[in-house]
User: Fold this.
Amino acid sequence: MATILGISEFDVNSHVVAARSAIEDALCARVLIIEDETIIALHIKQIVEKLGHEAIAIVRTRAEAVAMARDERPELILADISLADGSSGIDAVKDILAEQTVPVIFITAFPERLLTGERPEPTYLITKPFEPATVIATIGQALLMHREIDINSEAA
Assistant:
């Protein structure tokens, strides 16, 4: 690559590092985590923060999720289906999406509750137990797609 570009390997590596940093900065997001199991919630938070995102809150119920989303306007939501008080993460997400447009990734041990053939089906679904690499890749995909849609909407 250095030969093709006519620069040193050191300069190529410096440009790659700078490009990666710019991409990471452009993708940084405020993330709301809707998860009632503390260990899982903290694991997800760790993944989110390691990627450079801000975990604005971990909430455990539908009511908390809706209130937090209304107050904090997250740029991404990671949601479980079964919540602490018996409420539904699906219903929480529906309530939130009625007020704002935000990408949602469901992380659940019960994917069959989402994959019913009825609309709307989730665009992003990760089953528990999950691999951190799957969460990382899905977060990147969700943010890129959502931001591309936003850019195209503004250009129209």
The mean pLDDT is 88. DSSP finds six helices and five strands in the chain.
